[in-house]
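agent: user wants the structure for Acetyltransferase (GNAT) family protein from Pseudonocardia alni. delegating to structure tool.
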Amino acid sequence: MTGTHLDTTSLLGHPGLMQGRPSTRLTTITLHPVRRDEHQAVLDLVDADRLPGQPQAAPADLREALAGRSPIDGALWAGLTDLRHDVAVDSLGNVLGVIATGWRARDSTAVLTWMHARENSAVLSALLDAALARFSTTKAEAFGMATALDLGLEALPVSHRRHTADVLVAAGFASADLWNYMLLPPDALTELLDAPASKLSPALTSRIEKRRLGWRIAVHEGKHLVGEIEIDGPAQGISRIAWLEVDPGHRGAGLGRFLLRAGLGRARRAGAEQAVLYVDDDEPGTARDRTAATALYRKYGFRSIDRLHTFTRS
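agent: tool returned. relaying tokens verbatim.
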């Protein structure tokens, strides 16, 4: 076990700590591998950081995460070894935080996959310092892959997790702003799907395919693919739009709206009440410019919830 000393005042206001105890009992926390009897406490930490539009993590999700598996980014998880999941507990046995790390041998990088501590900076710092100290390199990445505990969230929501971001930067990590996290709430979903349907041009045909996580709907002009959407089946009433693209030559003709309605309609019939998507808008002015896509999403009721950042340290 590894003991880490923290500033007592940073812990006294923590909601998980018992009140009325002598402050001297709160000066040290201890890190150890997650035990089975601590699983619910870990789930509570995860839930405390849950974003709007994210399902509540269940015990089965935590078991998958602890096993190093995820339905999304599975190949990235397969590239990690030496996985470890540690909790920080105080002298009273309260679980204050949790961190998950692994080793990526192909480029000799320590990888922080997930971390939660109710945004307590002192606990976050202790978790990060202790977890990364076990690696023989300063090269590290953080929050660069989805986990089984979320709905394809491949980065850190920096507004909702401001203290986590600050702790990473203080430890020498640089952040990269990659994604716009957007949510379509239930009322906007209903409005979009209950509006009059748009029709495809007679020259276009659509086809739906079942996928591992949901469905793909593709629109062709002859043999040429001109638009497609991939959407996951709902988890606790929430579907994730994994991909939507319209050929530049077919934009402005209602094809984006058709695809949104087709994908979301399929998801709603399966139980979806809202939807999320992550717009990779980090390269404006290039072939990957997402300005038009973001405008489409906003037009039909999606709203921005947070910016998603990844972190690296050399």
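agent: one observation worth passing along. The chain has two domains: 30-172, 183-306.
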